[in-house]
Fold each of these.
Amino acid sequence: MPGTRAVQIELSVEERRVLEGWVRRPKTSQALATRSRIVLACASEATNGQVAGTVGVSIGTVAKWRGRFLKDRLEGLVDEPRPGRPRTVSDDQVYEVVTKTLETTPPNGDTHWSTRSMAKATGLSQSTVSRMWRAFGLKPHLVETWKLSTDPLFVEKVRDVVGVYLDPPEKAIVLCVDEKSQIQALDRTAPVLPMMPGTPQRMTHTYVRNGTTSLFAALDPTSGSVIAQHYRRHRHQEFLRFLKLIDASVPTGYDLHLILDNYATHKTPEVQKWLLRHPRFHLHFTPTSSSWMNLVERWFAELTNRKLRRSAHRSVVELEADIRKWINAWNKDPKPFVWAKTADEILETLAAYCQRINDSGH
């Protein structure tokens, strides 16, 4: 049946431009875009039924927004304030809480504000302070640690290591090498209680130390596979033995580019002599205090989180066997580690961070 004929809408040039902009703009809410389409259709269609069919809404919806536009024009398409309790916190109070949080500490000598101390200082409730902090992303109770490298060759090393990750040489394999030292064989002083519905796994916080081992690992970030070997110590002798294991494990005909940190055992005269006799090895050192650039550290985090943190071992032999079993399972289904950032992006981020530190006044 034909729809009800309604009052024709006539749009000015400016109104049509604004409505068409609301329809096209990606960040416009869907509700406002739909209302804009209704009004544009009402300017050319005679009945609410025709507009409803064109836009894909009900006739009642067309009638509502036609009437709102005729009464208030463009302002009529914006949602009206919802009924409810009036606002009780002023902008000045919000400004005071945010400023105090960022620029001051409590007068009682605490290092940071709590919701209780801030509520007492400003005369607001703890829940109000908590909502403000959530709205502005403020977390005074948290602190993050950081350390900037003081390596005089920092820029050159960043470009070297990142270049190897993003554009590895032809007929070469890139390996990220490091040692996870002092892995403790820990046994709990009481049996671990299994997880149950509503109850997590439980273990005592006390433990017995049963010795330590060190794990040497070489990660191929392209495939995610790992060459690993346990040694009870981590001197240059053990590092040389691990280099020989890598040499025997990787087929001849490939150069080997090793990403390493600046640990002293990696640079001893004995190691240098061995490298001269094995020219397919090329070492790339990360800057000091920049272990985050060595992707094997990310693999060590997987080992810690998925195996070591919640396991118990009564001897070093048992610990090493358990780790070896986990590594064998990992190598059956390895996960690649992809480096994404360029050297320029890293250096720009650090430069911006240093600028923020300099501007902070501390």
Amino acid sequence: MRIFPLPPLQSLVAFDAAARHGSFTKAAEELHVTQGAVSRQVSQLEKFLGRKLFVREHRTLRLTVVGQRYAEQINSVLTDCAGHTAEAMKKQSNFILTIACASGTANLWLAPRIANFRAMNPDISIRILVRESVVRLTADEFDVGIYYLRDDLPPGLSLQKIIDEKVFAFCSPDYLGMARLNPADLINKMLLVADEQQRQWMSWHDWFALCGVKVAKLKNTLISNQYPILVQMAVNGQGILLGWEKMIDPLVDDGQLVKASNASASHGGGYYLVCPQGHRENPVVNIFSRWVESQILSTLTGAS
């Protein structure tokens, strides 16, 4: 329903200031405009109302009876409007976005980029929640997540694939002297193994099998339940790590890791943006989703 009749807001602001000060000149000083501008705004309001609001006498300005009552009402309306506006601005500046992801994703992909998102969206506060598996999350504890998924997708989630799976073996530049070996030649090297991660993640046995190499038992392994620890060990030249392309790229771009083999493998899975179905219309989630898409696109463009 249209709000009618409604005078120009600026004329109400000028009238309110003039009524409080009893002077066009002092009202102009408050509003940082000229005295003439205030006078014109008040005259425009009087014309709109068809009533005189002020009695203009020599060097004096006083409200009419109608003007006095209208001034009290308009001051109340403008005060309420200012209060509601301040509340809206306060809420906007305190938007909180909870982003869930595994520790590897948080360290390798999100942490190096999140400053860019915050610079573009200073009104959004960020909370990063680390859960190694999306199945360990409840819908009420996160807004959006970035997770590797392959099958048995959890119910009640909205999914958007952002990265296709492509898994390579990585090591420090010095570990193999920049050589790239065939998969079979990696079997006897020190292999860094992620334990207790998402069950769908690719294991070394999976990787070798997908690369056409049969392995009964891995002889040299170092196991950790924290993928970032294994990443740091690979950077330090202590073994070879499986890494998901696009996720591990920052370390490759920095020269801290290189491919140990040209071979790659895929289960057909990938990384997804996930969010509870009740959250997918959240404007803050949509802002983050578009930002993630732009980051992936810039990575692909840079690679090409």
Amino acid sequence: MTTTEIAPQSDTAARGADYLDRARSAAVVIEAEADQIEAAATITAPAFEALSARDLFWILVPEDYGGAGLDIVSAFRVIQELSRADGSTGWAFMANSCSMAVAAGYMNPTGALGIFGDNRGITAGMVVPTGSAVRVDGGFRVTGGYQFASGSAHADWIGAGFIVKDENGDPVLDADGQPDARISFLPREKVQFLGNWDVMGMVGTGSYDYRVDDQFVPDDHTMETFSTTPVRPEPVYELGLLGIGVGGHAPVALGLAQRALEEIAKIVEAKVRPGYTGVVGDSDLFRLDFARHEAMFRAAQAYVYEVYGDAETAAAAGEPISDEQRARMRQVATWVQEVAGEVVTFAHRWAGSATVRNPSALGRCVRDAAVATQHALIDRITLAEAAPAILAGYQKQ
């Protein structure tokens, strides 16, 4: 397939189904490794091999860069399945695959081919412009301290966002009068990892702190932080950096909610409690609560895939993604975190001591969901920011 062709819908669906089957196969290994992943605070070697050997990391990298070239819904289904197997692994994988999509879709093709192509690179790291850099011949010299490098333990290239500064240390302004903000990707040997990942949930993501000290990055390994124009023709990249990077949190939440429902369904089959005439799972009170929360999960799952699928379909048809569609992507990425939190809490309340004793898959879901809802990019303020464009659609009726 050339860089200007789009795969037929039937081919796209078949490829998505193939990679979801690969994810389900990898999930068997990941579930078996989940306790050790949490103990090690990073993806273990067997889990990494299960993902790498099935070519899963590169699901959002174009085919002519050596990736799968999946559509966003197919990619999100893979992330959901891996998150169902283990929240930390799903989160770290999401961070890798979504940052790779950003690099492939928006970076100079020469730099992208240097990262991907024959090298089969994996990226991770903080792309928010918390560092600084000065312009030098052929690129930049970057310095900065960074946090939350999820999936960095097995990454070859580490992202480092920065603001370009002049010789006086003042921000250089772009054509719009805003500070020139960029994302760079450096070989991991140029990065100093600081550890400092001791947390209550998402423990196995290996989201370490790190530092970059006056390291040279060539121009073709950088990109504009707030670019809205992809360098690739595939419609998935029209979703934008936020659409892909923030959107990736949605299937992680779905995976946590799905696993919580699976776990509580098994737990209540034999669980007895004072006041119940039989096992908890046979009580009308539990069944009512379960039916409500299972419906919440199904509704959230359908809405996530509807919103992102509609936006990519519009892009594939050559239409601009509307303000309402972009607002809905932001809306659902945040709202699904709230749904997942409620579903996991429901399961936790009915499980009793089953989530208290370690190791416990449901206990991990509880801790992971508590951390997942705290990410800055899915703060509830994003719902308020999304509301005007969604309201406008109703007001036009």
Amino acid sequence: MKSNVNLWYILGAFFLVVAGTYTVWNLLDHGGVEWVGTVALVFSFFMAMMVAWYLGRVNKSTGGVLPEDSLTADIDDGDPELGEFSPWSWWPLVLAFSAAVFMVGLAVGQFLLPVGVAIFAVAIVGWVYEYYRGYFAR
């Protein structure tokens, strides 16, 4: 975990150096600051520092070594329950299709937006209730 924190601090320092270089380069080349790139790189620096700070706090509160980092850890030392996933389910595919129809509706024609929302409603209800009927009902 400590190596992750250090990597994010190094990435933040990289973004800060690149932001400075980018700003100076634009000042010398164009005679002014190009604000979009400079602000994006400075905010990337802030984001990397925020993630590094958060991971540092998590590292401090957990005692430093996670079960994933220890060579002597068992499988049960980590999170025991990650959820239940259905490898045979077709509903995620229908849900992705509804998102695709909605995006095509945004790009091509507004008439496809309600169709995408309707397919989404059917897909999300089907995915939530797939264990309540049919072969896999409980």
